[in-house]
Amino acid sequence: MRNSTLKEKIRLLFDVILAALLFTLQSIVYGGWAISVMSIPLLPYLVILATGHPNLERDINLLFFAKEFMVGRIIAFIGFTIFLLSGIQFLRDRARGVRLTKTGLYSVVRHPQYTGIIIITIGLTVMVLTLGSDLQIIFLWLIQMCGYVILARYEESHLEKQHGEDYRQYKREVPFMFPVKCPSKIPETLFTILIAVIISFVFLIFPFDLIRIH
After folding, report:
1. Which of 8, 36, 84, 107 is most buried, with most CB under 10 Å away?
2. Which of 38, 65, 92 is where one domain is finished?
3. Residues 74 and 113 both lie in one domain
4. Is the overall model pTM greater than 0.85, yes or no?
5. What domain range is 93 assigned to?
6. Burial class (CB in 10 A: 0-12, 13-18, 19+), 115
7. CA angle 148, 68, 55 (to 5 degrees)
8. With contact defined as beta carbons under 8 Å apart, do 72 and 126 qualify?
């Protein structure tokens, strides 16, 4: 029993470290080392795991293994797949000397890695809301969305300086972070946040009891 508990703690610690690394590496690739501070909120989980907090193991087991959360888990997996594939494509193109990636997932949205992470957070939020309505978690998701919009805009300001008209043409042809073309009369940032607000409203009114698997 003791060995089983130790193995479980090691596995949980690995899961959290992997999540922290994914967020940190993604931030470093796009925003420089300073932007990786967005991964700092994950650090308390490492501390809690190291100190043996009893409820964290229970909660992580529920989120990752309980069948009640299957729908949210599938959504999160889809997001992780998009994040992983776009990251592989980005690194592959850099190794081949491609200065601006515009093919594959980057022809669907300009920031597929952000899109993947957003879908992951949607899946995790669905998993939490399956337990019951929580205004705080919905609000925090919306704030997080605004943070990713700011990061993406920060990246684009540097890409425009680096690639000039080539990147501006790419911006005109390919949507921002959601695969939905922005109306010409609405600023793209505002349109993206509006989509996030709509998703938040869906979180608020959706009958999550219908997708809870018993």
Report:
1. 36
2. 65
3. yes
4. no
5. 67-214
6. buried
7. 75
8. yes
Q: Dihedral of CA 148/146/149/38: which sign?
A: negative
Closest CA to 69 of 10, 13, 128, 23: 128
Tokens at 19, concatenated: 């999540």
Instruction: Choose one of 65, 80, 106: the last residue of a domain.
Output: 65
Nearest CA to 125 out of 73, 178, 187, 48 is that of 73
Q: How many domains does the chain have?
A: 2
* Three-state secondary structure call for residue 107: helix
Of 203, 202, 213, 207, residue with least CA distance to 70 = 213
Note the maximum CA span of the chain.
63
The residue assigned the tokens 């695969």 is 179
